[in-house]
Design brief:
- The complex is a heterodimer.
- By secondary structure, chain A is mostly helical.
- Chain A is built from twelve helices and no strands.
- Chain A folds into two domains: 86 residues, no CATH class; 220 residues, Orthogonal Bundle (MetI-like fold), CATH 1.10.3720.
- Chain A is 78% helix and 0% strand.
- By secondary structure, chain B is an alpha/beta fold.
- Chain B folds into two domains: 217 residues, Rossmann fold (3-Layer(aba) Sandwich), CATH 3.40.50.300; 78 residues, no CATH class.
- Chain B contains eleven helices and twelve strands.
- In chain B, strands 6-7-8-3-9-10-12-11 form an eight-stranded mixed beta sheet, with helices on both faces.
- The two termini of chain B are 40 Å apart.
- The mean pLDDT of chain B is 86.
- The chains are: A mainly alpha, B alpha/beta.
- At the A-B interface, helix 9 and helix 10 of A face helix 2 and helix 4 of B.
- Chain B: GO terms for molecular function: ATP binding; ATP hydrolysis activity.
């Protein structure tokens, strides 16, 4: 397994380089000039020229890339053109918030989606299956922002059970941190739970028809063991793929969810950086997201190998 | 257990697909004593496998319903018992081997664990004891280097080895009854002989009664003490292996015998039975073989009862014993 992971990480390096080239070109492809934004209202030509020199905007583009990539390798992603803070520091501040939100949302989605999928496949055609499908369809159809606002109105404003917004770092007060984050994570997780439920259901339906499930029953095993040990384990392979693909949706959803619950996360950072043409920050964020995706894929591949021993050959 | 009480007594078993007008398995009855091997023979779709699955209580969750009959196994009626009663019997007192060794083992679990879990479930033994039993069983089914095989996955084994694992799994709790549904059909011919040999020896060693479902008369000749010939959901002829092979009485059994090549040297033409099995939708009310039978006449419009000709040799044909019926052209000449 370790050798496999090492191999996967080495294979990922060219991908990371490609991402970095793409990320770097981004600033030259986007319309608008950040120097003009920084130079302010007066647009003094001397100031503009000095700024161009300072940010190496006069160098040939390949040189600019090499300088940027060299710095990035040393953990220097540049300085925010707007706040003058190092980009890495900004990301380091905001990323954990979004990771916490995304991980909690994913856990909620898995805890709801997979058992619901198993149950509705097992009880196919009964009222349980119908109810699960209707809830899943609603989960897919209801927009995040609407569900978020409704939950704030009900749980925070009317019942006063949970805070409507804010953030508490996990390291300072774990319990409070989870309390604050649980509602946004639920909102973000529902759509994903619905997708997971549908995929788990269809994978379980095909696995439940398989010969080895019949063998498991012929051994006199309890239905719980047949379902979880024999069927679910095999049905999870396609579900893991779906989880990996949904990770992108999760990050996109996080941007919106953070806005609704005013959470100081990655999403707000992205939106602010794009609107202000804060290229260094945009680049840093896209690079981090790209690497996160590669990491998720490596994790998924590792999960396949655990679930399906044939892939270890 | 007394002489008069067989290990398994199936009587009047009928199975129907929800909504169909005729049952798929119709009034099937047979008995089996401890240590005996019964072969149920017939072509695909005749209801052999359904009969086996019904006895195992594995028809739940399918559109098939047991419509009637009883199957007494050691004081329990398998057809009316609750799922929890059946679950405690399955894999313990009654075990089953399936046709497809390639797909019948769970691809994600180690074979040692797949054998041991049946032992742990029914015997409540520890993990180590289950593993020890799994190893013992792998050795009994003559898997070489059994110890190292325990931790392998099914895809690392050949088809014959996988079927040996299935047999090890089925016999792990010393069942009184082993049901084998076409256990050699999916295997190479040389491996088939090895597996049959193994099953016969293990059957003798453990004293387990066996029901072997097959369409292969060679397997029947090799294994059976008793034979039941099924056609289109009904038993058309049943008796001891000698009775069936030496003195077949049902026209369908005759057809089966004549369609089997012989190695005696004389070149004989193989006979095929004309026509096909009627589909469940237009199953005749009378004899289901009539449309393909050279002896058929007006009498065959009524369902023939399964009558005892002599000494347990039962036949469902209005024209039995066949000697009285006159020989139809092209039938007995090669038999």
């Amino acid at each position: 397994m370790l050798a496999f992971l090492a191999r996967r990480i080495i294979i990922a390096i060219p991908t990371v380089i490609l991402i970095s080239i793409f990320v770097f070109s981004l600033q030259h492809l986007l319309p608008g000039d950040p120097i003009l934004v920084m130079a302010g209202e007066e647009r003094d030509p001397d100031v503009i020229a000095a700024l161009r020199e300072k940010y190496r905007f006069n160098d040939p583009i390949p040189m600019q890339y090499l300088a940027w990539a060299g710095n990035a390798l040393q953990g220097d992603l540049g300085i925010s053109l707007r706040t003058q803070q190092p980009v890495l520091e900004l990301i380091g501040e905001k990323l954990p918030v979004t990771i916490q939100l995304a991980v909690m949302a994913l856990i909620i989605a898995i805890l709801i989606g997979i058992p619901a999928g198993v149950l509705s496949a097992y009880k196919k055609g009964t009222w349980i299956d119908w109810v699960a499908n209707i809830i899943a369809l609603s989960g897919l159809s209801v927009p995040n922002f609407w569900l978020g606002i409704m939950l704030i109105l009900l749980v925070s404003v009317k019942l006063g059970w949970l805070p409507a917004s804010g953030y508490m770092p996990l390291t300072e007060d774990p319990l409070q941190s989870i309390r604050v984050m649980i509602m946004p994570a639920f909102v973000l997780g529902t759509a994903i739970a619905a997708t997971l439920m549908r995929h788990t259901r269809s994978a379980m339906l095909s696995v439940l028809k398989s010969d080895y499930v019949r063998t498991a029953r012929a051994k006199g095993l309890k239905e719980r063991v047949v379902l979880i040990k024999h069927a679910l384990r095999n049905a999870l392979v396609p579900v893991v793929t779906v989880i990996t693909l949904l990770f992108g949706e999760l990050l996109a959803g996080a941007v919106l969810t953070e806005q609704i619950f005013t959470i100081p996360g990655f999403g707000k950072l992205v939106v602010d950086a794009v609107f202000n043409r804060d290229y260094a920050v945009v680049q840093g964020i896209v690079l981090c997201t790209g690497i996160a995706f590669i990491f998720m894929n490596i994790l998924a591949d590792a999960a396949y190998r655990i679930l399906n021993p044939r892939m270890s050959q | 257990m007394t002489e008069s009480q067989p290990l398994l007594d199936v009587s009047g078993l009928s199975i129907r697909v929800a909504g169909a007008n005729r049952p798929l398995v119709d009034d099937v009855s047979f008995t089996l004593n401890s240590g005996e091997t019964l072969c149920i023979v017939g072509e695909s779709g005749c209801g052999k496998s359904l009969t086996a699955l019904a006895l195992m209580g594995l028809l739940d969750g399918t559109p098939l319903r047991i419509e009637g009959g009883t199957a007494m196994f050691q004081e329990t009626d398998l057809l009316s018992a609750s799922q929890s009663t059946l679950r405690s019997l399955r894999g313990d007192r009654i075990a089953m081997i399936f046709q497809e060794p390639m797909t019948s083992l769970n691809p994600a679990l180690r074979i040692g664990d797949q054998i041991a879990e049946a032992v742990r479930e029914h015997r409540g033994v520890s993990h180590e004891a289950g593993r020890a039993r799994a190893l013992e069983m792998l050795e009994r089914v003559r898997i070489p280097a059994a110890e190292s095989r325990l931790d392998e996955y099914p895809h690392q084994l050949s088809g014959g080895m996988r079927q040996r694992v299935m047999i090890a799994m089925a016999l792990a709790n010393d069942p009184a009854l082993l049901i084998a549904d076409e256990p050699t059909t999916a295997l190479d011919v040389t491996i088939q002989a090895q597996i049959l040999d193994l099953m016969r020896n293990l059957g003798r060693e453990t004293g387990a009664a066996q029901i072997m479902i097959t369409h292969d008369l060679g397997v029947v000749a090799e294994m059976a003490d008793k034979v039941a010939v099924m056609y289109a959901g009904r038993i058309v002829e049943a008796g001891s292996t000698e009775q069936i092979f030496d003195d077949p009485q049902h026209p369908y059994t005759l057809g089966l015998m004549s369609s089997m090549p012989s190695l005696s040297g004389k070149s004989q033409r193989l006979v095929t039975i004309p026509g096909t099995v009627p589909s469940p939708q237009d199953m005749p009310i009378g004899c289901r073989f009539a449309a393909r039978c050279p002896f058929a006449d007006a009498a065959c419009d009524a369902p023939p009862p399964l009558v005892d000709l002599n000494d347990g040799h039962r036949v469902a044909c209005w024209h039995a014993p066949i000697e009285n019926a006159g020989i139809a052209p092209g039938w007995k000449e090669t038999a």
